[in-house]
Amino acid sequence: GQQVMQIPQYQHVQEGEDFTTYCNSSTTLSNIQWYKQRPGGHPVFLIQLVKSGEVKKQKRLTFQFGEAKKNSSLHITATQTTDVGTYFCAGLEPMNRDDKIIFGKGTRLHILP
Amino acid sequence: NAGVTQTPKFQVLKTGQSMTLQCAQDMNHNSMYWYRQDPGMGLRLIYYSASEGTTDKGEVPNGYNVSRLNKREFSLRLESAAPSQTSVYFCASSGLYRETDNEQFFGPGTRLTVL
Predict the structure, then answer these.
(1) Which residues from B are below 8 Å from A92, CB to CB?
(2) pLDDT reported for residue B84
(3) Residue A53: how many CB atoms within 10 A of its CB?
(4) Residue A81 — φ and ψ, nearest 5°?
(5) Within a 10 A sphere around the Cβ of A52, how many other Cβ atoms?
(6) Would you say residue A98 has pLDDT above 90?
(7) Which end of chain B has fewer CB atoms surrounding its CB within 10 Å, N or C?
């Protein structure tokens, strides 16, 4: 079955440094979504990428979808303490007959002041 | 709009007890989901319902049952709780359109401890 692998599992960065998390699927995806979960909170949708090679930006966050639609990345420039949390990617397979997406295990970001 | 609501927020059970986790959404979404989240394991899908009247197993369905009561409500039942079911449970709902508008909206979660 479909698997979505996310690396790294944990990342500690100094405030102001950049951060990147990577997501790799065993199969081609229709789309990929990214979510953020603050400590003690629930996952919140950030963005969805649909097109091959797509790049989207939200302020300091840059999201990319690979040309083969099997991998994706989230890059945060100049991290701030508000970026702390776990970032999940989630992918949808083209032949999936319903809306069941597969989540990666997440990357937990910790910011050192 | 309240979005996705879950009750209760916290629950402590003894082994063998039963309980039902309630979830409701007011966004007219077709699909609803139940996940459990354990440290280091990410979100694992327990059951989902692609539309009113249908339910399907996810990755970790054993020990759970679900009911899609109507379009708004999707409940998760533990018939005989076990310590391995200690977890945070999230309900989510999505979408009007499969590929372009199917972001998932999550409830605040239920923190369940089974002693």
Answers:
(1) 98-99, 102
(2) 96
(3) 11
(4) -60, -25
(5) 11
(6) no
(7) N
Contact A42 B104 (CB under 8 A): no
Hey, what are B57's tokens? 């197993």
CB B78 within 8 A of CB B63: yes
Buried/exposed code over B69-98 (b: 16+ C-beta within 10 A; e: otherwise)? eebbbbbbebeebeeebbbbbbbbbbbeeb
Whether the Cβ atoms of residue B41 and residue B88 lie closer than 8 Å to each other: no
Contact of A59 with chain B, judged by CB distance below 8 Å, is answered with no
**Residue B18 structure tokens:** 């039963």
Mean pLDDT of chain A: 93
Q: At a CB cut-off of 8 Å and minimum separation 6, what does B97 contact?
A: none
Nearest CA of chain B to the CA of A34: how many Å? 9
pLDDT tens-place string over residues B8-34: 999 999 999 999 999 999 998 988 999
Residue of B nearest to A1 (CA): B59
The pLDDT score that the predictor gives to residue A99 is: 61
Structure tokens at B58: 């996810």
